[in-house]
């Protein structure tokens, strides 16, 4: 019997994973990978750490834990997979099930027949049509040559200033990489706050302040008009508001899927140019599968199409494709839009839906912002985090979370991933039996605190304002009275809310409650609004009816303090 | 209208939480707490860290993050809760809804009427009837006076050797505390391996080796026969097999619930002496609630009664009791038996059911052991972990997990908590959209690797042996041929399996497969059995039919290596 021929175009994340998984499931198949670049199965997500010199050698990004380079020879001897590098697929003949590819060095064309074809053609960084974007030292960071060029420039010692255009995940990871190497970094983005795909404006404002404290300038809501140079080498960036010096520039404004091959072959594409696949990752031609950055996928919660070009998604889809080619009929579960990054001492992440996405998907979202320590205050290394938790009012299902802080954020995020994936209710999360010992958590984990606070709000046990809502109230008619129950020393240390307020430390509130007006709404807060909660109880006990809480207290206040 | 009187007996975890939550929900209630000790709301889980001097001052364990001691005055001014310390409840008069209590210093008796009573009487450490257990410097570690006495003894400089009797959570936490202070520690337990309630024998053997490497001797399967002393002070411990010198002894053999008050009042108790409560935490008298270490609760997966005396459970139950007294009708979700501890550079934890518990509960458990890195090998600080994942064959539901390692274990455990709580299937977990960036995880998280491996096993894609199963096969008739596909250097570094084996590094297997017999089962493995998987594919591709994998490879092998 003829061996089944599986041809895979692309050998980085999805393609390499498909090949490796399939070789294990079906050693009898004839598996071939065509990769246009020189490097296979490299860890592109590691590039910012390579550029930042956390990872010293590029080989670390392309080798196994044992130090063996994952090259064509490795794939041949260990995986029984044939790989052609420097091999650009140029045409798919669907009728004859054959792909034409050309050798990058010789230009020689060759035909590769297939029984199943896998398109793992990935994506490419967008080079916006800005004058000067073709100057030397204007980089993108997507391929191994990109990473090598950028690291080489940095190692030359000539880079004192850098401008990063685009404050998404890659841009902000490189912010840290460059700043830690002593480069003066500025970030420019057309939107007003960093990481807009990950977190809302309130978190974004705090992130901008946090990077400022590390010497990094963030210029939001600005449009880059020109990249200037001298002698063919970049010297600066002009925006519609300022000129910035730059010994190097990183373009990190987004990516587009590599789907011309699919388009030319007549496969169905989505309006954004990604390849349309079904639950089994099959394209509109059932003998052709596609996965990774080049495909449109499905959101696990909304069930709607979504594009989530991430290394983790690509790996998951590679497994699913291999399973299906091997006849296992494994569906792809979908994505949650999970993302995370380390930014200096902060960890910032998101999973599931934010409120806007939840509304668009037809839910009735309720959200809460809480500020929590990640372990008991008596344990060394305690960090803090802000959690915004979103649930559906009717079903009480957890829809998503955004978490940010100096504490162990990734742990809480991954528990939220499991909660959102499985449709957990806010009630079950609030009563979760999470692992507690002092080195790891508080007796009730931050996630359960967030869920409990959200329950309180959903069940009408407490009236709360988020910072933005409170600011609107304070700047509108009949503003409430603000009651800060911190100690005076904390006010000096942590700052004051920029409106008129009354300061009565919680311990004095019972005896001094008579000083407060009974005909006006009172909004209480403290550092993180735990004492604020107690203040509400004290006021209610003293007969005050219209009392509310500022969610997350002063720590979650994203605007200027005074 | 008369204020509703809520009386709470016990002011540590459950009692203090009930009072604090209830004061927020119902400021109009008259809330009183009777605590027999001097300290309220203290962090008992922090005692091992206090004894180990990680926490310097005992005040850190009884104060708020702001440094305010949670004493009776604090509860009065901040929480509007009346607290009587040094006040021992002696009798419940259910008919007249009244509790009699005596003042510890004056002996004076006083009556406390109630509308709702809450029993949060906790538990007490068992002092086994061993001769010598009343000697000086034979400690338990349960109350603040216990902790102060133990720390004072350690600070005297006279403690060179210590014996810990009981290798449960508290015992093993104190192992680290003492060893880090330079004390030579021995642990004695009647069972053969440490932490038997948390992990199975295979993990336990590895834990015993790990503490041995830190200079700690573990003597399993030994019975303590006598604690010896001189001049009233302990000098050693005798077991049925040896004598151990000891300048101090910790008795950590377990606890029993404090329920004589409930028993005398005629409330229903379970056979183990814990108080029986319903889903709303009500005892057999609906005006009396109970929670914390003194009650029997329900397992979330099995729905069967279980006793889980943990600080986190007590806090959760305190909230639920407060809700129900305030009329919110909140059910307690149940427990998963989650536990975690830090032990030197290891983190060890469990949630949900192990295989034995799953079988007893009527499931058909399938388990897998995997060995995984916690982030890419190129990132600094990479750690490893072993995951044992258990699922039900029929429903494919995740039933539980035990995780152990030098890596970030607590994160994977909490994601498993969410997965088990919500009844997630192995398929959904395997395809989880967990947060990936190189500082935090591998592209596919260890949990998803574990789930994928378990799927492979459940779906019959691979035949595997766990270490114990392989050992049985090797010591029975017709043992399989062992194929170690590591490099010779790794064999020297990591050790060799203590049976006859063939060593062919994976990269040579394709060309050398002909050396292997075709009429004998072959079991392949490597360091963590990833290359072992590839070896299976290579062998299958070469026509070998009867091939299997050692789960977790050499790293998960718990027995001696050679």
From TrEMBL, chains A, B:
Pfam families listed in its UniProt record: Pyr_redox_2, Pyr_redox_dim, Rhodanese
Domain Rhodanese intervals: 476-558
Organism annotation: Aminivibrio pyruvatiphilus
Oxidoreductase recorded as keyword: yes
SUPFAM superfamilies, sorted: FAD/NAD(P)-binding domain (SSF51905), FAD/NAD-linked reductases, dimerisation (C-terminal) domain (SSF55424), Rhodanese/Cell cycle control phosphatase (SSF52821)
Keywords: FAD, Flavoprotein, Oxidoreductase, Redox-active center
Family the UniProt entry places it in: Belongs to the class-III pyridine nucleotide-disulfide oxidoreductase family.
Name by which UniProt lists this protein: NADPH-dependent 2,4-dienoyl-CoA reductase/sulfur reductase-like enzyme
Superkingdom classification of source: Bacteria
CDD domains assigned to the protein according to its UniProt record, in alphabetical order: RHOD
Cofactor(s) needed: FAD
Cited PANTHER family: NAD(P)H SULFUR OXIDOREDUCTASE (COA-DEPENDENT), PYRIDINE NUCLEOTIDE-DISULFIDE OXIDOREDUCTASE DOMAIN-CONTAINING
One MF term in the entry's GO annotations: oxidoreductase activity
């Amino acid at each position: 019997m003829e061996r089944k021929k599986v041809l895979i175009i692309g050998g980085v994340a999805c393609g390499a994973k498909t090949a490796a998984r399939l070789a294990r499931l079906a050693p009898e198949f004839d598996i071939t990978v065509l990769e246009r670049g020189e490097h296979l199965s490299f860890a592109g997500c590691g590039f910012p750490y390579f550029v930042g010199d956390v990872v010293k050698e590029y080989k670390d990004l392309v080798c196994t834990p044992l130090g063996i380079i994952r090259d064509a020879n490795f794939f041949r001897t260990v995986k029984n997979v044939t790989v052609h590098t420097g091999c650009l697929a140029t045409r798919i003949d669907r009728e004859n099930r054959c792909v034409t590819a050309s050798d990058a060095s010789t230009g020689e064309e060759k035909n590769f027949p297939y029984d199943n074809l896998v398109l793992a053609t990935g994506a490419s960084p967008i080079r916006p049509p800005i004058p000067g974007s073709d100057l030397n030292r204007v980089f993108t960071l997507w391929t191994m040559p990109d990473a090598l060029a950028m690291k080489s420039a940095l190692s030359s010692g000539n880079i004192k200033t850098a401008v990063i255009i685009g404050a998404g995940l890659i841009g902000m990871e490189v912010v840290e990489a460059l700043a830690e190497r002593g480069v003066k970094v500025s970030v420019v983005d057309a939107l007003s706050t960093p990481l807009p795909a990950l977190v809302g404006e309130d978190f974004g404002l705090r992130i901008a302040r946090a990077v400022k404290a590390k010497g990094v300038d963030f210029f939001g809501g600005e449009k880059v008009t020109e990249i200037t140079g001298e002698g063919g080498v970049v010297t600066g960036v002009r925006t519609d508001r300022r000129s910035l010096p730059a010994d190097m520039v990183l373009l990190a404004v987004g990516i587009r899927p590599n789907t011309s091959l699919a388009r030319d072959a007549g496969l169905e594409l989505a309006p954004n140019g990604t390849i349309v696949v079904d639950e089994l990752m099959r394209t509109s031609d059932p003998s052709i599968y596609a996965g990774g950055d080049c495909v449109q996928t499905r959101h696990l919660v909304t069930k709607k199409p979504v594009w989530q070009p991430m290394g983790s998604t690509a790996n998951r889809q590679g497994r699913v494709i291999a399973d299906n080619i091997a006849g296992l009929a494994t569906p792809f579960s979908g994505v949650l839009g999970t993302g995370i990054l380390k930014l200096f001492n902060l960890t910032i992440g998101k999973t599931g839906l934010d409120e806007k996405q939840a509304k668009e998907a037809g839910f009735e979202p309720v959200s809460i912002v809480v500020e929590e320590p990640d372990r008991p205050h008596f344990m060394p290394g305690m960090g803090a985090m802000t959690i915004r938790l979103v649930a559906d009012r009717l079903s009480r299902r957890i829809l998503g979370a955004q978490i940010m802080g100096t504490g162990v954020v990734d742990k809480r995020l991954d528990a939220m991933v499991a909660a959102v994936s499985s449709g957990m209710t806010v009630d079950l999360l609030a009563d979760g039996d999470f692992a507690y010992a002092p080195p790891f958590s508080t007796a009730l984990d931050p996630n359960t605190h967030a869920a409990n606070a959200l329950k309180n709000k959903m069940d009408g046990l407490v009236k709360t304002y988020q910072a933005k809502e409170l600011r609107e109230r304070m700047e509108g008619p009949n503003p409430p009275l603000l009651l800060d129950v911190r100690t005076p020393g904390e006010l000096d240390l942590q700052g004051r809310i920029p409106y008129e307020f009354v300061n009565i430390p919680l311990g004095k509130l019972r005896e001094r409650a008579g000083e407060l007006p009974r005909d006006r709404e009172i909004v209480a807060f403290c550092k993180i609004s735990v004492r604020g909660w107690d203040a509400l109880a004290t006021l209610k006990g003293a007969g005050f009816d219209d009392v509310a809480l500022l969610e997350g207290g002063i720590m979650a206040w994203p605007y200027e303090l005074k």
